[in-house]
Each structure stands twice: as C-alpha cells, then as structure tokens.
Design goal:
This protein is an alpha/beta fold. The chain folds into 2 domains: 316 residues, Thiamin diphosphate (ThDP)-binding fold, Pyr/PP domains (Rossmann fold); 37 residues, no CATH class. The chain contains 12 helices and 7 strands. The strands form 2 sheets. It has a 5-stranded parallel sheet, with helices on both faces. Helix 7 links the parallel strand 6 and strand 7. The structure holds thiamine diphosphate (TPP) and magnesium ion (MG). The site of magnesium ion has 6 residues, from strand 4.
C-alpha cells in the first residue's frame, strides 16, 4: 500500500532571520528589541566573548576545572536571557553560562562553581536552577517547574535549554510530551550548535529540523537563526508571551555553531575540519549585531572597545571575589545538601569524616 503516509512539509520551517549576516535588516517582528535592548544585547554578547576567553585562561592556569566554550553562541545566549523576566525560571546547562549571568546570576557564583567551590544560593529575585551538566534533564525539570507555576497561578514562565545532542535523550521527549499534555507555561530552547562533542547533528536525528518535533507534542515550533540576536530575542519573547498568556509551551531551535572546542578537554581537530570552522567563524554574531547597530545609527565609535574594557575589569573583580570563597570541605557535601539531615545522612557523614581522618585527609589542623 502506498500513498497513505504524510510527511511533514519542510517548508513550514523556514529559518527566522531579522538581520542578515551583513548586518542589513531583512524582516521585522512585533516582539523585536527596542533600541535600549539592542545595546544591552550587544553589551552582553561582548561580555560573553571576554568571559569565555578569561574562563579558558583560568582553566589553563589551573585556577578552575574543565570549562565549556560559548564562542559563536553569544547571540543565542543573550537573546534568550534578555527576552526573559528575572522572575522567569532559567533551567540550563554549561552552555548557558552567559545566559545565566545576563539573567542575573552573579559572575562569581559561576566562577566559584568551576573552582569546585560553593557558590551559595542564587539571589532571591533571580529564578534560575543550578547549572546542570547532565544533559537533557533541563526539559523535564522545566516542564515540572512550569506545571508548579501553573498550579500556583503564578505568571512565571520557565525556559528549559538543551543542545542538539540532548534531543536524542529520552528526557527531552518526556519533558516536551508532559509539557504539551499539561499545557504548561514553558519554552523549550534548543541551541543546535552542530555538534554534541564529536557527534554531528546529522547523527542525532533523521528529521530535517529539531523544531518540527514540536508538532508531535502538540505545541508550536520555530526555527531561528541563532546567530541573529535580534531574531532570537523576538522569537523567545513571542514564546514567553504566549506561555504567560496561558497558551502553553513551545519549542525553539536556534541554529548556531560551536566555534570553539566542546570544552577545554576537547580537541575538535580530531573530528572536524578547519575549513568547516572557518566557514562558520565568518558569521560572527557580535560582528553581525555591530553592523546592524551601525546601519540603524545606534552604534557610537569605539563602543565595542569600551565594552571589552569594561568586561575585562568586571571579570577581574569577579575572579577576585570567586577566589576568596573558601574551598569546599567534606562536611559541606553533607551540610549543604540537606536542610535537616536524615538519620542515614548523619551516620554517613560521621563515617565519611572518620574514614577521612584515618587517612589524614581532615582534622589536620
Ligand atoms: C546524560 C548525559 N550523558 C552524557 C553526558 C556527557 N556529555 C556531556 S556534553 C555531551 C554532548 C552534549 O551535546 P549537545 O546536547 O549538543 O550540547 P552542546 O554541548 O553541544 O551544547 C555529552 C554526551 C552527560 N553530561 N550527560
Ligand atoms: Mg550541540
């Protein structure tokens, strides 16, 4: 039997782009950023570039552990964060560090985390889940938090983030399915950066786009140029407004590219060509937004250099504060996990500390 099967019409998923690579405007959107927000986007993206390089340097100097890189993905991160309210929940991973900071999480809290320190709770008015390295978990977490918000009658929206690779995890599908069924106020944001460590996007899914998976979960999907900060902001804003208005979740695929290695432990030359990277490097999201600001007459001579200088100074101060945070102790592992330890945890704590003392690891003072 033939001819009874429908295939999704790919034309339904054009790439949404408001600003072309050369910085010229190609479309408009109701939810696009105003002039002040455009400058904020630029400021955060420039900060992200400086942050990324400083974090890599700190790792090379042995001052922090392995760190993921965000070079090339600054537009996705800044566009996402600025479209959110501080009271909207950000549920992200190591690839969203810039989004976390732009959302209001202190820089030193992020640096502390990568020092293996205890960053302390995030500020009360910043709704952000701990940065989760386990990939895909963000989606069911976001769906659950969003159901909580809905049941409480709060008007908070929850943004769950993951990468293209994470869409192969069961968590991704369970999270979106649950969110669709319960029509929760969530936005699922996938940064498709072409790679999941050494596995290319083509090996994650046989579907043409990740965005089209939205249909299977009964929610709208959008495919956006993730290097166009203006478009990312507009699309996320629209999804957040829909969610806040009680119209349910949506899925956004942001097409971008991981220009750097997966992390400081990775050597991408083993699995991809320099030519591929060079091709993508030409489409620098910061340069694109800068050209757009120039054509719109918003850019003032020397702004980027000024913002880079400011970012370097802000980073130096944050590093100093992070390095002043005391190292984690074995006690912290128990004391900071449970508000009130159970009997089993109390026993576990005692036994662990006793064993560590026996091998001379604690109690030396
Ligand atoms: C559940 C789980 N499996 C495996 C890993 C190891 N791991 C870390 S990052 C990564 C690839 C993730 O790729 P993607 O989702 O595309 O995100 P990206 O790193 O490209 O932002 C893997 C497999 C992990 N952290 N968690
Ligand atoms: Mg990826």
């Amino acid at each position: 039997m033939q001819g009874n099967f429908l295939r999704p019409p790919q034309a339904e998923f054009p790439v949404i782009r408001l600003v072309a690579e050369d910085g010229t405007r190609v479309a408009r959107a109701e939810t696009e950023p105003d002039r002040a927000t455009l400058l904020e986007l630029f400021r955060w993206m420039v900060f992200g570039r400086v942050f990324d390089q400083r974090m890599i340097n700190l790792q090379r100097q042995g001052r922090i552990g392995t760190i993921g890189t965000i070079r090339g993905q600054e537009a996705s991160a800044a566009g996402l964060a600025l479209a959110m309210r501080r009271s909207d929940w950000l549920v992200g991973s190591y690839r969203e560090l810039l989004a976390y900071i732009a959302h209001g999480v202190p820089i030193e809290a992020v640096i502390s985390l990568y020092r293996g320190g205890v960053p302390g709770p995030f500020p009360e008015d910043v709704a952000a889940m701990p940065i989760q390295i386990v990939i895909g978990t963000q989606m069911p977490h976001a769906a659950g938090i969003a159901l909580g918000a809905k049941l409480r009658g709060a008007d908070d929206v929850v943004v769950g983030c993951c990468g293209d690779g994470a869409t192969s995890e069961g968590d991704f599908h369970e999270g979106l399915n649950f969110a669709g069924v319960h029509k929760v106020p969530a936005v699922f944001f996938v940064q498709n950066n072409g790679w999941a460590i050494s596995v290319p996007r083509a090996r994650q899914t046989a579907s043409e786009t990740i965005a089209q998976k939205a249909w299977a979960y009964g929610m709208p999907g959008a495919l956006v140029d993730g290097n166009d900060a203006v478009a990312v902001y507009a699309v996320v804003k629209e999804a957040i407004e829909r969610a806040r208005a009680g119209e349910g979740p949506s899925l956004i695929e942001a097409l971008t590219y991981r220009v750097g290695p997966h992390t400081t432990s990775d050597d991408p030359r083993r699995y991809r060509t320099d030519d591929e990277v060079e091709l993508h490097e030409k489409d620098d999201p910061i340069a694109r937004l800068r050209r757009f600001l120039e054509t719109e007459g918003i850019y003032e001579e020397g702004l980027q250099e000024l913002l880079e200088e400011e970012a370097r100074s802000v980073m130096s101060q944050a590093i100093e504060r992070a390095e002043a945070v005391p190292d984690v102790t074995p006690e912290d592992v128990f004391d900071l996990t449970w508000a009130a330890p159970t009997e089993a945890v109390r026993r576990d704590r005692e036994r662990t500390l006793r064993e560590l003392r026996e091998v001379g690891e604690v109690g030396k003072e």
